[in-house]
Design a protein that fits this description.
The structure is a single chain. This protein has about 300 residues and is of the alpha+beta class. Helix content is about 45%, strand content about 20%. The protein has 3 domains: about 110 residues, Alpha Horseshoe (Serine Threonine Protein Phosphatase 5, Tetratricopeptide repeat); about 70 residues, Immunoglobulin-like; about 100 residues. The strands form 5 sheets. The protein has a 4-stranded antiparallel sheet with strand order 3-2-5-6, with no helix packed on it. It has a 3-stranded mixed sheet with strand order 4-1-7, with no helix packed on it. A two-stranded antiparallel sheet has the order 8-11. Strand 5 and strand 6 form a beta hairpin. Helix 4 runs antiparallel to helix 5. The radius of gyration is 43 Å and the shape is rod-shaped. The two termini are about 75 Å apart.
Length: about 300
C-alpha cells in the first residue's frame, strides 16, 4: 500500500524512513494531506502539521502516518495517546523492522512517564454498564488495565436507573493506582404514587373551614363586648374600689357586654374544636394509589389518572 510507505516527518523519526525521492507518490487524499503536513514540519509549523497528520490518519490509518502523529501528540503533551499509537506501530511493523524498533523504543520511553491504572469490576456483565476514566470510555471487563497520564482523574461507572459510582484516582508516573467497582444493587420497583382520599380531604377542609369561621366570629364578638363595656363608663358607670357603680342603664349595658363576651367564649371553644377535628380527619385520611398512564386517541393525546377519590 502506497500510504504505508510514507516517510517519517520529524528528525527523530526520519532516520528510519526512506528518502523522499525514493518514495512512490501517494495521490490519495490522505497521501496529499500527509505530504502537506511534512512540508509544514520543514517550516517549523508543528501544530498545523499535527492537525494534518491527524486528518490523514483518520482517512487512512497507515503506520507511517501513525508514527508522525504519535510524535506530534508527544510534543503536545498527550502522552497516553502517543504511547497507544507507538505501541500499535511496534506491534504491526514486522515487515519494517527499523520502524518497529523505533516505535517500541518510543513507546517504552513514554510508558515510564505514565501511570498504570487497574480497575476491578465485580459485575462487568451488568446490562447498560458504562465505565469512564477521565474522558475515555472503557470496555467493561473483570479487570481493566490501562495507562493514564499522571494527574488526578475521575473514575465513573454508571448503570441506567441505579446510583452512580465515582472516585478520584491519584495517578503518579511509574506507579500503579487501583480501584474496585462493587456490584450495583438490583433495581427495585418504585413505590406507587399515593394521594390522600379526596372525599376525606374535602371533609377535613369543610370542618376546618367551619372552625375558622367560628374563631373569626368569636374575635368579632370579643371586640364588640369590649366596646360595649367601655361605653357603660362613658355616661352611667364609674370605677370604685369595690368594682363599679352604675346609674340609669349602666348596669344593663355591662350585662349586655358580659353576655356577648360569653358568646365569644363559646364560639372560640367550638371553633378550636372544629379546627382540631378537621386536622385529625386530614391526617387520618387513607392514602390510595394513583396510576398515571398516557392516553392516545385519533383525536387527542393526554394523561389518564386513575385512583379512588
Amino acid at each position: 500500500m502506497l500510504a504505508a510507505m510514507r516517510s517519517l516527518a520529524f528528525a527523530v523519526v526520519v532516520a528510519v524512513a526512506a528518502t523522499a525521492s525514493a518514495e512512490p507518490v501517494d495521490t490519495t487524499e490522505a497521501g496529499r494531506i500527509f505530504l502537506q503536513g511534512r512540508e509544514l514540519v520543514k517550516l517549523g509549523r508543528f501544530d498545523e502539521a499535527c492537525a494534518l497528520f491527524a486528518r490523514s490518519y483518520e482517512l487512512d490509518p497507515a503506520l507511517g502516518t501513525a508514527v508522525n502523529l504519535a510524535d506530534c501528540l508527544e510534543r503536545q503533551g498527550h502522552l497516553q495517546r502517543a504511547w497507544a499509537l507507538f505501541d500499535v506501530v511496534a506491534r504491526n511493523s514486522q515487515s519494517v523492522q527499523s520502524r518497529a524498533r523505533l516505535a517500541r523504543q518510543r513507546a517504552d520511553a513514554l510508558q515510564a512517564r505514565l501511570a498504570i491504572v487497574v480497575i476491578t469490576l465485580h459485575d462487568p456483565a451488568t446490562p447498560g454498564l458504562s465505565v469512564r476514566i477521565g474522558e475515555r470510555q472503557m470496555t467493561p471487563a473483570p479487570e481493566i488495565r490501562d495507562l493514564i497520564e499522571p494527574s488526578d482523574v475521575e473514575l465513573v461507572a454508571t448503570v441506567p436507573g441505579r446510583s452512580t459510582f465515582r472516585t478520584m484516582l491519584h495517578a503518579v508516573a511509574g506507579a500503579t493506582v487501583s480501584a474496585d467497582i462493587p456490584a450495583f444493587a438490583p433495581l427495585h420497583d418504585e413505590p406507587a404514587a399515593t394521594s390522600r382520599r379526596r372525599s376525606r380531604v374535602y371533609l377535613a377542609g369543610a370542618i376546618g373551614g367551619a372552625g375558622a369561621i367560628g374563631l373569626g366570629t368569636a374575635l368579632g364578638l370579643a371586640i364588640s363586648a369590649r366596646r360595649i363595656y367601655a361605653s357603660a363608663f362613658d355616661h352611667d358607670c364609674m370605677h370604685v374600689t369595690a368594682g363599679a357603680v352604675c346609674t340609669g342603664n349602666g348596669r344593663a349595658t355591662i350585662d349586655r357586654a358580659g353576655a356577648r363576651a360569653d358568646l365569644a367564649t363559646g364560639f372560640t371553644i367550638a371553633g378550636g374544636l372544629l379546627v382540631a377535628a378537621g386536622a385529625v380527619v386530614y391526617v387520618t385520611a387513607p392514602r390510595d394509589a394513583v396510576q398515571i398512564a398516557p392516553i392516545a386517541t385519533s383525536r387527542a393525546l393526554g394523561l389518564g389518572v386513575a385512583g379512588r377519590f
